[in-house]
Amino acid sequence: LAKTTQPISMDSYEGQEVNITCSHNNIATNDYITWYQQFPSQGPRFIIQGYKTKVTNEVASLFIPADRKSSTLSLPRVSLSDTAVYYCLVGPYNYGQNFVFGPGTRLSVLP
Amino acid sequence: DAGVTQSPTHLIKTRGQQVTLRCSPKSGHDTVSWYQQALGQGPQFIFQYYEEEERQRGNFPDRFSGHQFPNYSSELNVNALLLGDSALYLCASSLADHTGELFFGEGSRLTVL
Predict the structure, then answer these.
(1) What is the band of B1 on the pLDDT scale with cuts at 50, 70, 90?
(2) What is the four-CA torsion angle of A58, A64, A66, A67, rounded to 10 degrees?
(3) Nearest to A14 by CA among A75, A94, A85
(4) Which of A29, A53, B32, B58 satisfies CB 3.0 to 4.6 Å to B74 for a cystine?
(5) Which residues in A lie closer than 8 A to residue B31 (C-beta atoms)?
């Protein structure tokens, strides 16, 4: 599985756009990039998944450059309730059953 | 539609004891995975069950065992508890032919004294 590197923590203010970048230099051809969000004392929740270019849903956008060696999760106009840990995971489409979670990025949204 | 449910939500055990945690997957899901999450760390994969068999296993000792029932629900058993087994145990369900999205329960918080 490709190793991922993301910032340990980030701070932001309400209403700002937050971009969390994940590096995955050893990503394989059949690997997908998936992001999860976790609130304290809860299980992780799927946010978004992509393979290349840009993916957008009602919660976030995922930008993936052509070389796919990194990806950026973009959260538009964050609120206090977006304070959570965000995990970047990389693995084959059919490998999702045992995704490898790193320490994630702890996002703190301040008023 | 009920999501993934886990029981108990909290429990306290002493070293050497045994514990059983239970998980009911999201309706329609046939695959259950178990994760251990220590404080301040990401979830670590324990094992995955599909068709009542352990399909994949992470780097956990044999003290950790599981079972999947015909209704797809699952149990995680941990024997000879150690202090280091204190953690949040998460169950995740999915379809065998999935899209990469795991549905997690809220976990069982185990404290070993």
Answers:
(1) low
(2) -160
(3) A75
(4) B32
(5) 97
